[in-house]
């Protein structure tokens, strides 16, 4: 399947699952409260499929998959027959109306916890958090070097790169100094503090991470394969060796090894390699050869390929997986709210918003990485939908909840005129956010 078709397919799967679950929350609680449901729709616009149940509820799948709705019997939308007044929405006690409106985001929250739990039970393939550090970056200034392994962040053990990456993203938004405990290539451990407060305010997270200078290590200096007959093979280098230094230059990752070979071989093709094998170090002499590969300009080669990043699987027994799912849900929700707050106050850029194109690309990528990664993605998006829908913006669930809270305080419903004005404001805000998110998606495509 092509990337474009794959992105469209997995976007439809994502929206279909999450929108259905969200609207089912409204539907289920409404029925439990005795409210008559007229229509349950996944999507907007012209129906592609429709079925009317025995109780009169119309179920449909519509052409525009960017949401859904549950239409209930509502006196504000027309006359209600006397025999149906007991099932009318606005006639229900305010606590029932609050429960019905809040049920959609709550069901998204439940789905997120369940998805994270399943992810941890299944086990998510990942990589050990070895890092690469850009020269002259904030990470380099803090004393971090390529090849370091992150042991813990802010006192919390970190076993995989995705854990480290997620924590770093939210920490960058917070702009507070971040303590890390790392292990160097020589096995020694030390504490460093990332000076995140030095990052400029108002930037987008991707640029902040670039300025920070930390990324997943492209590969350790562990040798994955040796080309027979090439200089490394003749010198005695074997797969599984870890190259410690070239002509005395210590190495943090394979990129540093490649650079060292080019620079040292330019001085003299004969180089001293220190390798670690079975826990012991030994020195080998390799004579590099200058070759052109696949039409590229000639460069110094020794004939070795890196091993893939060291694998790690994030997996827990069911009980601990539930605790981990709750913690992940809390951390992700807190990070999302923090980012929204900083965008509102101008401390973070609106460029951090992503729209359906960005979601589609991530959906396709996560699905390609396996079930556990796709469940993680679904959980994250579901949680984002819950948080977004609870914002006090008219037309969203949070806006309706705000009206009901005002009704509780005043003792009477908000006027119809106020609600109509709020709808216009809410729609304007919503379409503005969608427009900015869409623009960001297009810009990322052309910039990349």
User: What name does the CATH topology of the domain at 124-219 and 312-369 carry?
Assistant: Pdz3 Domain
* Portion in strands: 15-25%
Termini separation comes to 22 Å
Q: How many extended strands?
A: 18
CATH level-1 class of the domain at 124-219 and 312-369: Mainly Beta
Mean of residue pLDDT values: 87
Helix content: 40-55%
Net shape: elongated
Q: Characterize the main sheet.
A: 4 strands, antiparallel
What does this structure look like?
The protein has helices spanning 3-32, 94-122, 138-141, 161-174, 205-212, 231-235, 254-267, 318-345, 356-368, 371-389, 397-410, 416-447, and strands spanning 37-52, 58-72, 124-127, 131-133, 149-153, 156-157, 178-183, 189-194, 214-216, 223-226, 242-246, 249-250, 270-277, 280-287, 289-291, 299-301, 304-306, 311-314. It has a four-stranded antiparallel β-sheet with strand order 6-5-7-8, covered by helices on one side. It has twelve helices and 18 strands. A hairpin with a 2-residue loop joins strand 11 (242-246) and strand 12 (249-250). Helix content is 47%, strand content 22%. Among the domains are: 124-219 and 312-369, Pdz3 Domain; 223-304, Pdz3 Domain.
Characteristic key phrases:
single chain, 448 residues, alpha+beta, Pdz3 Domain
Helix/strand layout:
Elements: H1 3-32, E1 37-52, E2 58-72, H2 94-122, E3 124-127, E4 131-133, H3 138-141, E5 149-153, E6 156-157, H4 161-174, E7 178-183, E8 189-194, H5 205-212, E9 214-216, E10 223-226, H6 231-235, E11 242-246, E12 249-250, H7 254-267, E13 270-277, E14 280-287, E15 289-291, E16 299-301, E17 304-306, E18 311-314, H8 318-345, H9 356-368, H10 371-389, H11 397-410, H12 416-447
Antiparallel strand pairs: 1-2, 3-18, 4-9, 5-6, 5-7, 7-8, 10-17, 11-12, 11-13, 13-14, 15-16
Helix pairs in contact: 1-2, 1-9, 2-8, 2-10, 2-11, 4-8, 8-10, 9-10
